[in-house]
Write a structure and sequence with these properties.
Its EC number is 3.1.-.-. This is Ligase-associated DNA damage response exonuclease. The chain is an alpha/beta fold. It folds into 2 domains: 15-150 and 288-330, Metallo-beta-lactamase, Chain A (4-Layer Sandwich); 156-284, Rossmann fold (3-Layer(aba) Sandwich), CATH 3.40.50. 21% of the residues lie in helices and 24% in strands. It contains 7 helices and 19 strands. It has helices spanning 63-70, 156-172, 186-195, 206-217, 274-278, 292-302, 314-323, and strands at residues 15-17, 20-23, 28-30, 38-40, 55-59, 76-79, 84-87, 90-96, 104-110, 113-117, 139-143, 176-180, 202-204, 225-227, 241-244, 260-265, 282-284, 306-310, 327-330. Strands 7-8-9-10-11-18-19 form a 7-stranded mixed β-sheet. A hairpin with a 2-residue loop joins strand 9 (104-110) and strand 10 (113-117). The longest helix is centred in the middle third of the chain and has 17 residues, at 156-172. The protein is globular, with a radius of gyration of 21 Å.
Length: 341
């Protein structure tokens, strides 16, 4: 942005209130955590999209997922990516965040000043959603879920190839391979990445089914799937790949698979010891959030003269940015980052 124009002395366009991030000139909240009159929603994960708001505004691409989250009868208005709307004295628009289907950054413009609220985002390619779009701004509110130098992601295609080799190895010895992953976003990305490598059917837990079908309805190509609950009791799952949410681990549901090897797909698998402590046989480092290099690149790409960090490692990221000469500080919110969703 134009460094000759500074908005530092103005009242912040977005502030933290007991209900959530609030834009007073526009009269709306962004991803509020308590019921409000008007809520702009970046994406449909539970820590960002909560029920009980009077009116919602989200992306057209994310509407089906948002309705699943907050209720089909909720008052939801939508915008296409890049489409502008005037709310109060603020012009708002949504721009792709590359996190999950329909995810968005929120751009706010008021009296020549531009803020961007990132929501959750990633810069890596993902066949299930629109790619991240750089939006220039004066102030950038960025997530920092994986805001530490240790977090650096491998190419997702290489991770998918590793998953397929793991599946094949278990097939060869007659074991099922149960892969735990978050129900919204991660499961669909895994199915889409594997669809580039094979056309086998994967079995899925009931918690994933509606979300997988929502992605199919949006035209996302994934492996064919079958609900575990639709398989006749007593049928062997030897050699099968089964996707399930982490909450299914250790439950009686797991008894259906007999001898099984378990895996977990998450950015947290980058930390040595996490897989062992959580009792998984394999860990696959795959995240729908920006890693450390991508966070730094995004801050630079926005041209922001001020950066506010939230989620996860907000303070370490802000401290590092300050050391690099960026005006940065953490912003306290209850967003969870990579949570079981």
């Amino acid at each position: 942005m134009d460094a000759s124009v500074s908005f530092q002395a103005r009242r912040p366009l977005v502030t933290v209130t007991p209900h959530g991030l609030y834009c007073e000139p526009g009269g709306f909240h962004i991803d509020p955590w308590r019921p409000v009159e008007r809520a702009l929603i970046t994406h449909a994960h539970g820590d960002h999209a909560r029920s009980g708001h009077q009116r919602y505004l989200g992306t057209r691409a994310g509407e089906a997922l948002l309705r699943r989250r907050v209720g089909a009868d909720s008052h939801i208005d939508t915008l296409e990516y890049g489409e502008s709307l005037k709310l109060g004295d603020v012009t708002v628009s949504f721009h792709p965040a590359g996190h999950v289907l329909g995810s968005a950054q929120v751009r706010l413009e008021h009296q020549g000043e531009v803020w961007v609220v990132s929501g959750d985002y990633k810069r890596a390619a993902d066949p299930t959603c629109a790619p991240f779009e750089v939006v220039r701004c004066h102030t950038f509110i960025t997530e920092a879920t994986f805001g530490l130098p240790i977090f650096r992601w491998d190419d997702a295609r290489e991770v998918a190839e590793d998953m397929l080799r793991w599946w094949d190895a278990n097939r060869a010895v007659g074991r099922s391979a149960v892969l735990f992953c978050y129900a919204l976003g991660k499961a669909q990305r895994i199915l889409a990445e594997l669809a580039r490598l094979t056309d086998r059917t994967a079995f899925i837990h009931g918690a994933l089914h509606g979300l997988v079908e929502a992605y199919r309805g949006a035209g996302v190509k994934m492996l064919p799937t079958q609900l575990v609950s639709e398989v006749e009791k007593g049928t062997s799952f030897a050699g099968a790949l089964v996707l399930a949410p982490p909450s299914a681990g250790g439950s009686t549901w797991m008894r259906r698979f007999g001898e099984a090897e378990t895996g977990f797909a998450s950015g947290w698998m980058r930390v040595r010891g996490n897989r062992r402590r959580r009792g998984f046989d394999r860990g696959f480092v795959l995240s729908d959030h920006a890693d450390w290099p991508a966070l730094l690149r995004t801050v630079a790409d926005t041209g922001a003269e001020r950066v506010l960090t939230t989620h996860g490692s907000a303070e370490p990221l802000a401290r590092y940015l300050r050391e690099q000469g960026v005006d940065a500080s953490p912003l306290a919110t209850p967003f969870e980052g990579e949570a079981e969703d």
